[in-house]
């Protein structure tokens, strides 16, 4: 039955959207039920026990009635013993049996739900991490996160609780009505004439009240946003002397909250009076009419007790269905969203690490052959136009160009995050499609602009480049990356925890960790996406040295922002609006009077001077 929550101080409940229940949605959701299959034995046993415990629950009112009747010397049921104590002991034995049945029912249901949900979670997560980059370009991390947490929790709740509750309430409703008739047909007709209407009214009214309380909560959440925003931007508020304006805004919002809550309070009052008067009134009426029947000798007192209990069962079952139905709708919505991910086409990557070992070695020759590319999400903007580059194994090729010219996009194409619409990428002269995706990614390493370290130790972060690396290998890589010294400077050395809850590393230190990581990976092709924010000169020297060490003996594609670092490159490619406009060595390009490279060099020279 509706639980009215009108206090505006209640935490706003995060409601999952509900889905319409129809043949189509149920059919698609039934796909998720295949996850229960491996545990069907326990599931069916749980169902049977649930059915049994619900049936047993129906026996108790009869036993209580029989007890009361026995006290007055009436024995209605032939199968029951003719002694009060024996009936009571029988009741306790039944109660104990029901407790045992309930125990197994709960344990088995939870086991099945936990295991199958873990399977769904695992599959969803694995699918998520193997989905192509384009999938992530169109979605927010928070939204995906909520599918793994909120949506799956809703499904889990439904499997463990709602599903069992529906079956139990159905048994209680059907059994209750039948037994009401058995106990007294006259009283049953009287109850059934009013009870369904009262329950329906209570449910609808309860829903209305809940809506009102949700409005109050939403308004309150709005006012909390005002507090949050003002405090975050307190400097702005003060600088613009907008304290009074913000206070007025907050005050108006609070008044609205109070307005809605007070309006709701009236309805809540009506609801409470209704429940007290009508629902309890019905029971008073039943007892009244029942008492008349008892005094006329048409019914025993025990029967009346039994009857009252059954009518409570029936009323409660009727009242519970709307909530249960809403839960099922939410679970169906959640299942559909999860299924949407599960049915996406993932990249060809195996869940087993052993399947992803390198099968075809790449020497490091890299070719962009007349590549045209647009991001799938923005087909109208051609990001790369007829791009052709040839990098021989071991060469250093620098890509320069203004912001937005497509440099990082080229790195994404090398890593096979996206595929060109026209033209092809060749590795050692063979099209990328002829290699396993993991072969290419295993032999290409990137040192990105913004190095993300995972929450964990420095050791773990370096070993991300090669998870089988020994401590000695990790230390060697750190030494070559000029990182060993600063790592040893921490009291916990390589076991220092970094990331959100750990030590904060400077930009240069993070880069050297990333370089050590790439050194461990030992790739044939290296992509260096140079950091735009400049480091201090000592840090810069250490990073530069580490990069030189990293680039030795491999093809390096350097996305350069500071042109001073690429003078030694074998080839410099100048990109403008997705098109290559100049190619050559530093010496060749710097002499071109009208060239973009020369212009950009001069700009940097001027600003750094
Ligand atoms: N995931 C994406 N989806 C759609 N468009 C994108 C995406 N990533 C980049 N773009 C667009 O592609 C173009 C090239 O971007 P790219 O990041 O490759 O440029 P860049 O030369 O690396 O720039 P910067 O030097 O600022 O890093 C830009 O117009 C950008 O808006």
Averaged pLDDT: 84
Helicity level? 55-70%
Give the strand content: 5-15%
Low-confidence stretches: 1-13
Bound compounds, each kind once, are: adenosine-5'-triphosphate
| CATH level-four homologous superfamily name of the largest domain | ABC transporter type 1, transmembrane domain
Work out the helix count. Answer: 18
Structural class: alpha/beta
* CATH topology assignment of the largest domain: ABC transporter transmembrane region fold
Number of strands: 12
What is the level 1 CATH name of the largest domain? Mainly Alpha
Distance between the termini: 76 Å
Biggest sheet statistics: 6 strands, mixed
Please tag this protein with its features.
18 helices, Rossmann fold, ABC transporter transmembrane region fold, 609 residues, alpha/beta, four-stranded antiparallel β-sheet, 10% strand, binds adenosine-5'-triphosphate
